[in-house]
TrEMBL record:
<dbReference type="GO" id="GO:0000214">
    <property type="term" value="C:tRNA-intron endonuclease complex"/>
</dbReference>
<dbReference type="InterPro" id="IPR011856">
    <property type="entry name" value="tRNA_endonuc-like_dom_sf"/>
</dbReference>
<dbReference type="GO" id="GO:0000379">
    <property type="term" value="P:tRNA-type intron splice site recognition and cleavage"/>
</dbReference>
<comment type="similarity">
    <text>Belongs to the tRNA-intron endonuclease family.</text>
</comment>
<dbReference type="Pfam" id="PF01974">
    <property type="entry name" value="tRNA_int_endo"/>
</dbReference>
<dbReference type="InterPro" id="IPR006677">
    <property type="entry name" value="tRNA_intron_Endonuc_cat-like"/>
</dbReference>
<dbReference type="GO" id="GO:0005737">
    <property type="term" value="C:cytoplasm"/>
</dbReference>
<dbReference type="InterPro" id="IPR006676">
    <property type="entry name" value="tRNA_splic"/>
</dbReference>
<protein>
    <recommendedName>
        <fullName>tRNA-intron lyase</fullName>
        <ecNumber>4.6.1.16</ecNumber>
    </recommendedName>
</protein>
<feature type="domain" description="tRNA intron endonuclease catalytic">
    <location>
        <begin position="157"/>
        <end position="209"/>
    </location>
</feature>
<dbReference type="InterPro" id="IPR036167">
    <property type="entry name" value="tRNA_intron_Endo_cat-like_sf"/>
</dbReference>
<dbReference type="GO" id="GO:0003676">
    <property type="term" value="F:nucleic acid binding"/>
</dbReference>
<dbReference type="GO" id="GO:0000213">
    <property type="term" value="F:tRNA-intron lyase activity"/>
</dbReference>
Length: 277
């Protein structure tokens, strides 16, 4: 995966409190040499997300690369942080007697939801994720690639951008909350707030293709969101080879290394504020 530019992080905003069970992490899931079998993680493709339900697999993915998000949580599933917090109810003033959870509610396991790009990264690049559909049919890498491209129009470009960011050791999360494709973290969301909102643009022979073009009004909106959430906007231009047939899934998978990714920053620099620091 060729690249242009120099992605960096500065002015990091560290979290005030880090839970002890989330403090020790690794960049990627690794195989335990003491184990007799290689690392294998089972997941189910629901049609939109890929869900992992086994608690041990969830811990491996969350604490080694920051993969996925809890279905009922803002970040990490309850089995990773604290099982007692599975039932996350907001504290409200009420005159009625509190309802005590029954045994069946306490035993509910909160699954880990993987978005398409990170699930395919675990399948295609690391080879540790085995996915089945709702009918218990195994989905191989080629079939998963075809399905994901049907679900998400710019999946190929987003996956190339995902690979590029992973090569820079960023922790990548879905950016739908902020209107982008991704948000990226240094080390992990339990340590720092997100540094960038990432927008992916597909480029073919120097022109943007088959995706929404960010006009002046959109650009102003993204900058306002980034400013109010103390982040910056990062555009990643994914340039395909001129000889690549984008309709050929097999060719797209084989020629991923020929794709080039360029960075475009939109940082506002306050000269007076920087000089007074």
């Amino acid at each position: 995966m060729a690249s242009k530019g120099n992605l960096f992080a500065y002015n990091l905003r560290a979290k005030k409190k880090i839970q002890p069970e989330l403090a020790h992490t690794l960049p990627l899931p690794v195989h335990d040499k003491t184990a007799s079998e290689a690392l294998q993680i089972e997941a189910i493709f629901t049609g939109f997300t890929i869900d992992v339900s086994h608690p041990d697999s969830i811990r491996v993915l969350c604490l080694n690369g920051g993969f996925g998000q809890g279905m009922l949580s803002r970040a990490f599933p309850a089995c990773v942080t604290n099982p007692r917090e599975l039932d996350r109810k907001r504290k409200r003033k009420t005159t009625s007697a509190p309802i005590e959870p029954n045994a069946s509610q306490e035993n509910v396991n909160e699954p880990l939801c993987l978005f398409l790009e990170e699930a395919f990264f675990l399948m295609h690049t690391l080879g540790i994720l085995h996915v089945k559909d709702l009918f218990d049919k195994q989905i191989d890498t080629r079939e998963a690639f075809e399905r994901f491209r049907k679900i998400k129009k710019n999946f190929l470009a987003c996956y190339c951008a995902y690979l590029y960011l992973k090569s820079k050791n960023w922790i990548i999360k879905s950016g739908i909350k902020f209107g982008g494709d991704f948000v990226i973290y240094v080390k992990g969301p339990q340590f720092y707030h997100a540094s960038y909102i990432v927008l992916v643009q597909e480029m073919f022979e120097g022109k943007q293709i088959d995706s929404h073009t960010v006009d002046g009004l959109d650009f102003e909106g993204f900058n306002r969101i980034a400013e109010t959430t103390a982040k910056d906007v990062l555009f990643l231009e994914v340039h395909y080879p001129s000889t690549l047939d984008l309709s050929d899934n097999a060719a797209c998978l084989e020629r991923l290394k020929e794709v080039r990714v360029a960075e475009l920053f939109t940082k506002h620099h306050n000269y007076l504020a920087a000089r007074n620091q």
